[in-house]
Structure formats: structure tokens, C-alpha cells
């Protein structure tokens, strides 16, 4: 079996469906499939780079601006008082997927997240319907060129097998 292609690049290319909350020409943001809190979002550059050592400054700056937009939405729509912004680069830092990603993690009082040992925090059980509800609440529409609007098709649902592999990959790191 050959090497599997980068899972985040497949999300960018719409080969794997994701719960997208923001997209423009440089970045895409979607809900984490293993959220620490409801609304836990990942922001990634569309250009495949592994980590903070490789990412272009322009992309990095833009990701942070998008992180602010999403944080504001999360605060407004998902009853969060705060957010943690988190990024892991390198195996030693427990980076799971080798494609740069910035976590935006909503925080609420008594949410059970122990930030000193965040990796011990239980992943929140969630489902497609719940994630869709969150997308509805926090999705930020970007302006599209008319031809893109026409081309856009309804994303298919993720198959159970795909969900299984994505979860496995995220769990195994
Ligand atoms: Zn990639």
C-alpha cells in the first residue's frame, strides 16, 4: 500500500468532506473532528507546509487574522467567554498531522479543559448533526466570483469508513 496523501490537502481539494466555517484563496477553516470543546476549529494554509518552520509569513499572518474572525464568531454565537489559540510544530511538540494547523479552542467556565495538561482532556463526543448546527452559527461567508458560485456543488456526506480513518489518524498521530 502506498503512502496515503495528506489528509488536510484532501480536505482542501474537497476529496474529503469537512465542516468548513471559513474559506478564502489562502486558507480554509473547519471544525475539528475530535473537538476538545464544541466549536473547536482548525485553520490551515491551502499551500501544503508542514509546520511553523516552513510556513510563509504572509500565510501565517493571514491565518491569525482569520483566527480573530472565528474567535469573535465563537464568542458571539457559541456562548464562549474565551478561546485558546494553539499550534504544535514537530513530533516532539505532539504535532499530529504534518500540515500546519492552528487550533482555535472555545473556552467556557467549568468546561473541564485542563490547559496545563490539555492532552488529557477528553475529546468531546459529537455527531454530524451537531457539527452542522455549529457551522450554521459561526460560518463566515466570503465573497465569491460568480463562476465559482455556479460550480459549487453540494458536498457529499463523509462515509463511515472515511470518518473511521480520519479519527484513527488523529488518534495515532
Ligand atoms: Zn497537506
Instruction: Report how far the terminal alpha carbons are from each other.
Output: 19 Å
Strand content: 15-25%
Question: Which strand order does the major sheet show?
Answer: 1-2-3-5-4
Can you tell me the residue ranges where pLDDT is under 50 for at least 5 consecutive residues? none
Supply the number of helical segments: 5
So, CATH architecture?
2-Layer Sandwich
Describe the overall structure.
This protein is α+β, with helices and mostly antiparallel strands and 173 residues long. It has a single domain (7-172), classed as HIT family, subunit A. Helix content is 33%, strand content 15%. The chain has helices spanning 7-12, 57-77, 128-138, 146-151, 160-172, and strands spanning 20-23, 27-31, 41-45, 82-87, 102-107. Strands 1-2-3-5-4 form a 5-stranded antiparallel beta sheet. Strand 1 (20-23) and strand 2 (27-31) form a beta hairpin. It is globular and about 40 Å long. The protein starts with 6 loop residues before the first helix and ends with a helix. The mean pLDDT is 87. The protein binds zinc ion. Zinc ion binds next to helix 1.
Gist of the model:
The chain is of the alpha+beta class. The protein has helices at 7-12, 57-77, 128-138, 146-151, 160-172, and strands at residues 20-23, 27-31, 41-45, 82-87, 102-107. The chain has one domain: 2-Layer Sandwich (HIT family, subunit A), CATH 3.30.428.10.
Amino acid at each position: 500500500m502506498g503512502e496515503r496523501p495528506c489528509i488536510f490537502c484532501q480536505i482542501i481539494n474537497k476529496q474529503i468532506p469537512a465542516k468548513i466555517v471559513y474559506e478564502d484563496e489562502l486558507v480554509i477553516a473547519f471544525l475539528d473532528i475530535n473537538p476538545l470543546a464544541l466549536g473547536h476549529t482548525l485553520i490551515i494554509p491551502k499551500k501544503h507546509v508542514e509546520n511553523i518552520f516552513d510556513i510563509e509569513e504572509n500565510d501565517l499572518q493571514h491565518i491569525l487574522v482569520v483566527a480573530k474572525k472565528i474567535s469573535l464568531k465563537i464568542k458571539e454565537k457559541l456562548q464562549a467567554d474565551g478561546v485558546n489559540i494553539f499550534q504544535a510544530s514537530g513530533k516532539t511538540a505532539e504535532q499530529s498531522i504534518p500540515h500546519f494547523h492552528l487550533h482555535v479552542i472555545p473556552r467556557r467556565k467549568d468546561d473541564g479543559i485542563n490547559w496545563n495538561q490539555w492532552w488529557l482532556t477528553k475529546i468531546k463526543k459529537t455527531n454530524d448533526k451537531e457539527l452542522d448546527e455549529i457551522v450554521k452559527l459561526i460560518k463566515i461567508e466570503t465573497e465569491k466570483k460568480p463562476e465559482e458560485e455556479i460550480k459549487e456543488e453540494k458536498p457529499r456526506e463523509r462515509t463511515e469508513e472515511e470518518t473511521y480513518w480520519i479519527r484513527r489518524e488523529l488518534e495515532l498521530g
